[in-house]
Design a protein that fits this description.
The chain has about 190 residues and is mostly helical. Helix content is about 40%, strand content about 5%. It has 7 helices and 2 strands, in the order H-H-H-H-H-H-H-E-E. The N and C termini lie far apart (about 55 Å).
Amino acid sequence: MRGYGALTENIEYKKHGGDKWIADKKNVIIRLNLSNLIQNYPATLATLVKITREEDNELLTEFAHNVINKNKDKLYNLKFPENIDLRAAQLEEAVLLGAQLQNADLSEAYLQEAKLDNALLCYADLKDANFLTAEQLSKAFSLYNVNNLNPDLEKEIKEKYPHLLEPNYEIRECNDKDKGIHFAEKKTN
């Protein structure tokens, strides 16, 4: 195991045939309060995605998938660390409203029906992003210098929503809970 602490210990119960795993799985979720962890430390999502991509332990992978699925509706207005690695993340129907995902690696991510309204995707890598539509991207705040966008999507964005590809954003701190912790305002000329 790669040092996943208490979670690894719980998996050991299952390996040795213990029935304690099912109860402990629920307790781990409650004890770690992963919803708050993702809200307070968005990089936690990258760790969970990495587990789903790379971990050989089926139970740990299933656990990570479950945590991601239970938190897809809580990813709005988060400021993700720059260069966050969300390759192949299963973010179908995720609520990423106002999320700051600049420089994020979303290559091969599953984004079917993900809500991207007001999301900052500048410099994000969207190579082979799955089920992404121009309609979803049209609601983003910025696609400035987005990388590896599907050529058909890029053409449609250039034709219908060219302003999204321009450098048009500023990040402002805000304590207005209706706007979230961070929000973006378009520059005025």
